[in-house]
Amino acid sequence: MTSEAPHLVLVDGSGFIFRAFHALPPMSNPEGVPVNAVYGFTNMLTRLLRDHVGTHLAVIFDAGRHTFRNDLYPQYKAHRPEAPEDLRPQFSLIRDATAAFNVPSIELAGWEADDLIASYARAVVEAGGRCTIVSSDKDLMQLIRPGVELLDPMKQKPIRDAEVEAKFGVRPDQVVDVQALMGDSTDNVPGVPGIGAKGAAQLVNEFGSLEAILAAAPSMKTSKRKQNLIDYAEAARISRQLVLLADDVPLPQPIDALGCRDVEQETLRTWLASMGFHSTIQRMGMKPAPAAAPKHATQQNDASAANQAEVEKPAEQQPFTGYKTVMEIEVLDQWIKRARDVGVVAVDTETDSLNARQAVMIGLSLAVAPGEACYVPLAHEGTLDQPTGMQLERSAVLERLAPLLADESVLKVFQNAKYDLTVFRGAGIKTITPIDDTMLLSYAQSAGEHGQGMDELSALHLGHTPISYDEVTGKGRNRIPFARVALDRATAYAAEDADVTLRLWHVLRPELRARKSLALYEEMERPLIGILTDMEEAGIKVDAAELRRMSEDFEKRMREIEADIHTQVGRSFNVGSPKQLGEILFDEMELPGGKRTKSGAWGTDQSVLEGLAEQGHDLPQKILQWRQLAKLKSTYADALVEQMDQGSQRVHTSYQMAVTTTGRLSSNEPNLQNIPIRTSEGARIRKAFVAAPGHVLVSADYSQIELRLLAHVAKIEPLLEAFRLGQDIHARTASEVFNIPLEGMDSLTRRRAKAINFGIIYGISAYGLARQLQISPGEARKYIDAYFAKYPGIHDYMERTKEEAREHGYVLTPFGRRCYVPGIKEKNGARRSYAERQAINAPLQGGAADIIKAAMVQLAQKLPETGLKARMLLQVHDELLFEVAENDASALASFVREQMMAAASLDVALEVETGIGHSWSEAH
Q1: Structure confidence by residue, pLDDT tens digits, 356-370
Q2: Domains in the chain, start-ordered, CATH in brackets?
Q3: Fewest CB atoms within 10 A around its CB: which of 452, 631, 652, 820?
Q4: β-bridge partners, 363
Q5: In terms of Cα–Cα distance, which of 419, 417, 318, 330 is closest to 373?
Q6: Mean pLDDT over residues 880-884, rounded?
Q7: CB burial of residue 879 (10 Å; 0-12, 13-18, 19+)
Q8: Each residue of 105-116: pLDDT tens digit?
């Protein structure tokens, strides 16, 4: 996970031509030329340009039939028939398609496309990068290794070691030996007679290589196979030379020349229109081609040509009206067909709850083009202007929709997809793929710049204010459930949501690459949708009895503190009343520093009470203790019992994916981010989170990750060295800053260094450090000055980061996430200083968020391959929590630690601490 290393995406153009030709029915362009392979190739390239996250891209073609392999073995591919007559004119058109998309195409006489792919893959890996080969060709599987993987263009799934072993029964580096033994009748590779795929794999696994097999053949048990291995040894060796891809071919174009290029929209639109590929134009969000159909167009031409001809206005000018209400199954089928023809459909659900796990689907809406949307009511009640019986049966609708939602060739677009996916799961539909999420498309490129809600995005990008929920349901006491909204109003509201979502997708999707946010979205944000949905569905078991004991204990301690407070004040009052407390502190006790709020009451928030407590006043400290216990009691001890599923005794938090400026996840119902980390009360709360019977919890926590990121981005050699040597970073800082030896370091000095280390990350001021260490601001300033004198690179980083924020309005994490800092140019000094502290911290906190997200995606992909009976339950800041069968706990802890440490490449190694226990407290 680095931002500099090249990621080269290579498309096996030659292989894809034949696959598309045989997969698609006959189709001709307006001039009558066959184009089914061209159409398949074009759609593949459209999807690839939308989804791939490479920095470099090229399509590789065969230049001709004669290669060095024909000189080595004249019969090689000698029996292959000529290309079908309908395919031959499409070869040049496919090269035209590549040029129209502004993608480099490469071919070289005397070499096969596979050899060029092998050579480019080797070159980019040797340059420190990686390569994705878009092909499912078995002959290319020999290239898979660290840094090189295949991507199946049809299934859109990666092909790695596991997939190769499933197909060949051996590792990728042994594939050529299997192929050499079994031969290939299609390419006329001779192989060894009588040895098929299974037998070849068995031999390779037993002896390790072709040469080892041939060397062992004379001593094998007498059999026909033994004799064939002896008799056809040379044929096997020649076969290996034929199937082994050359990775030393001179590169026709250097890798640097293959950098991703912007598409020339008008050039591409004109070419697509000349082919009659109107649905592709629409799918890419371009203005439609001229409506008049060419005189030579046939019914075999693009399926949406007739529909496209009816579009008279550009997408951005289509009105937000004219939506349809679907009350007949035949009409729903037409919408589903339309979605398949277009290839992109926006989907939205209407429910009776903001809690997706509890929500009942009242209806759903679909949008297939700007201004072309519908609403399908499912559970509206008797206030309709039509009888309830006219609604379609929920089961019939979901049965029709399920294949569309699972169709890999149709992109489903949502706004806040995790919510809708959870609602569909509750309705019985588990598979929805592929998906895009307009909320996350925006968030990946504009975190902190503005909100990510649909209404705000619509106003910002479309200049349109959607119908509000209040407009259709009313407000306050007059609000009615959505199920009772009249169908015409429900349709106008719900279908508009889908329409807006689709239009936002057309605007936001192309911006990802332009704003260098595509990798962030594709590799992190989008995969997390399904991962977090699974985690929320799994939930975590809680011990209700322990929670009740905790609540009683908190209540008892609160009463004791409250009694002390009343004794100290000399009378009873409501400790939970800010107004009464303010009057006691500042009117009666006349403590200094009080400030009135706009309402005229005294301010008594946490910062005020902490300031008074630091001055030595006992009462504010007791109030803080009481408030902390009251918050823990209400937020966790009491609330968790209420939020617990009574059947499974598990609670299911909900993760918010697009709220923070830095990319961090947040959670609610319950909020697990605010459990105190280093207090006895926090440990007590974690004790109530437990494993299911026969299982344990495994915690994996990044150690000092933000300090490691600081050392990495600011290039502070003493900190880098300390991390590399595994030293106590706070003791090392104390030694460097205060000029005292590491040996015999006293705890107070180390604590002060620790406060500075972590404080610097948050742009701490001398006043803030003074409050934290209970020293004078002047002494705190000396500490900070000494710190910067010893580590000038940190000060330079801070100033450079603030300047970056002022210049661009945002800062970047080490992995390219934009974190906007809106207040960086504030005239008010206090607000501007706060924004500057945000700017300093955002690349570090955001970088940590990026790393743990990357780790979650990696773990979700690889955990099923381990066979361990485990699942990821929670993510809290820098920590992941898993539930696992007891026998698998140690293996899981090792696996998770290894994967998390490999999630990013920094100048210092990432360190992960793991723990195992029956409760979260034990594991943490």
Answers
A1: 999 999 999 999 999
A2: 7-168+245-258 (3.40.50.1010), 322-539 (3.30.420.10), 660-716+802-924 (3.30.70.370)
A3: 631
A4: 350, 377
A5: 318
A6: 97
A7: buried
A8: 999 988 999 999
Give strand pairing partners of 131: 8, 148
Peptide bond into 434 cis (omega under 30): yes
- Which 3 state secondary structure label does DSSP give 810? strand
Residue count (the chain): 924
Token pair 């009511």 is found at: 377
Give, for 498, the enclosing helix (H) or strand (E).
helix 487-514
State the CB neighbour count (10 A cutoff) for residue 643.
17
Structure tokens at 394: 């929920």
In the predicted model, what is the mean pLDDT of residues 296-308? 35
Confidence of residue 416 (pLDDT cuts 50, 70, 90): very high
DSSP assignment, residue 34? B
Structure tokens at 764: 């701490």
Tell me the pTM.
0.79
Contact 68, 19 (CB under 8 A): no
With beta carbons less than 8 A apart as the criterion, state whether 774 and 610 touch.
no
Question: Residue 325 forms beta bridges with which residues?
Answer: 375
Q: CB–CB of 159/133 below 8 Å?
A: no
Q: Is 806 exposed, middle or buried (0-12, 13-18, 19+ CB in 10 A)?
A: middle
Helix axes 729-738, 717-725, angle to 10 degrees: 140
Looking at residue 320, what DSSP letter applies? S
**Spatial separation of the C-alpha atoms in residues 133 and 365, rounded to whole Å:** 37
Handedness of CA 748, 749, 753, 756 (dihedral sign): positive
From CA 223, how far away is CA 321, in angstroms rounded? 78
Q: What angle do CA 738, 740, 741 make, to 5 degrees?
A: 145
For the CA atoms of 164, 169, 171, 175, what is the dihedral angle to 10 degrees? -80
Q: Where are the alpha helices (DSSP H) in 127-216?
A: 161-168, 175-182, 197-207, 210-216
Distance between CA atoms of 95 and 17, rounded to whole angstroms?
A: 11
Res. 382 pLDDT band, cuts 50 70 90: low
- The amino acid present at 650, given as its one-letter code, is R
% of the chain at pLDDT higher than 90: 54
Q: Provide the total of helices (H) and of strands (E) in the chain, helices listed first.
A: 39, 23
Residues paired with 184 in a beta bridge: 189
Torsion of CA 465, 471, 477, 481, to 10 degrees: -110
Euclidean distance between CA atoms 631 and 557, whole angstroms: 13
* 641 closest CA partner among 753, 526, 736, 552: 552
In this structure, what token pair is assigned to residue 735? Answer: 């030694």
**Which amino acid type is present at position 679?**
T
Q: Among candidates 402, 429, 409, which has minimal Cα distance to 332?
A: 402
The residue assigned the tokens 């485990």 is 870
Sheet holding 540-542, edge to edge: 650-651, 540-542, 689-690
Q: Are strands 650-651 and 540-542 parallel, antiparallel or unpaired?
A: antiparallel
Strands 148-152 and 130-134: parallel
CA gap 60, 113 in Å, rounded: 6
What is the b/e burial string over 471-501, where b = at least 16 CB atoms within 10 angstroms of the residue's CB? Answer: ebbeeeeeeeebbebebeebbbbbbbbbbbb
- Tokens coding 238: 């020649």
pLDDT of residue 314 exceeding 70, the answer is no
Which strand ranges, in their side-by-side order, compose the sheet holding 411-414? 324-325, 372-377, 361-369, 344-351, 411-414, 435-437
Q: How is residue 815 annotated by DSSP?
A: T
d(CA 722, CA 205): 45
Structure tokens at 638: 């009491």
CA atoms of 504 and 463, how far apart (whole Å): 11
Side chain identity, residue 20: A
Who contacts 546 (Cβ-Cβ below 8 Å, separation ≥6)? Answer: 687, 688
Q: Tell me how far apart the alpha carbons of residues 764 and 839 are, in angstroms, rounded to a whole number.
A: 12
Q: Is the pLDDT of residue 280 over 50?
A: yes
